[in-house]
Amino acid sequence: MLRPSHLSVVDMHAHYVAPDLIHEAERHGTDYGVSIMRDADGRARLAFADGTVLRPFFHELCDLSVRVFGMDAAGIGLQVVSTWTDMAGDQIPPAQGARWSRLQNETLAADAAKSGDRFAAMGTLPLQDVSLALAELDHMARNLGIRSVEIGTNINGRDLDHPDFRPLWKRLCDLDMLVLLHPPFKPVGEGRNGDYFLNNLISFPVDTTIAAARLMFSGILDDLPWLKICLAHAGGFLPYQIGRMDRGFAAHPACSRSLGTAPSRLLDRFFYDTLTHDDAALAFLVTQVGAERVVYGSDYPFEMLDPTGPERVRRLGLGTAQEDAVLGGTIRDLLSAADAPLAEGEG
Which CATH architecture has domain 9-18+58-337? Predict the structure, then answer.
């Protein structure tokens, strides 16, 4: 999957929706628990049965070829593309939700495969039913060659340390699957985050912080030391408030009930994308967790993409080995390590 390229940078946080998925949803949406609406300008919009209607799809989101010129200019040889989180479909009834996840994964994988070595698909799961999520995870790994998966930082308000999710974390670990934790369509703070784009600016990083903290304090990271989890948006507030969590661990029994070590000792159990939008914050992140735990991500093609691109990393003045790790070496190793085919009956 990860063939050599003269373009060395890997963008591991970017989003894509296949045109074939939109066409299928428009024709047979009831099979998936969705429908396609058209606005006055004829632009397609995804709608769910609960009344949620997403903003219109747009060209940059739905065309891989349009992004290649910018990738070439930035030295990006590989972009790992995941679904638009808003359309993951966690609220869809389970049977339809499973079909919706399968459609997203198969269209992502098909379009990535057509691109040669420029794009790799990151899967999605029907997390409203863990048994269905496990089945889709196996299908992705065995049949689609997908070796990374995007998971929301909460699932319909249910946190990721919920006992129902334990088999999923175990299976992800067994499959050596890279997980990108990404905030969902409805992050924490609903009711107070509707103005000023605060749902994205503040609630997204808060939701990521909650998810990471619960994975630490619940003992899941201790129980499954080989889990490979990347936190979107540079870890939310986690790397910058880890001292507060250590103080809680030392001072309050609730923090040490399931965790046997200070949270700061688990900080480098996660990977973090570079999306700080600030050189000093990114430099601090590298200092906190090590360059080998930081991976380049752009958030293409949404408003909150980093227009500075890989140049922000290069401005930090890291050594060659550290810079190469952030800009591509680490993520290539992570995906390649998981790229060996599964033996029949393995896992």
Answer: Alpha-Beta Barrel (3.20)
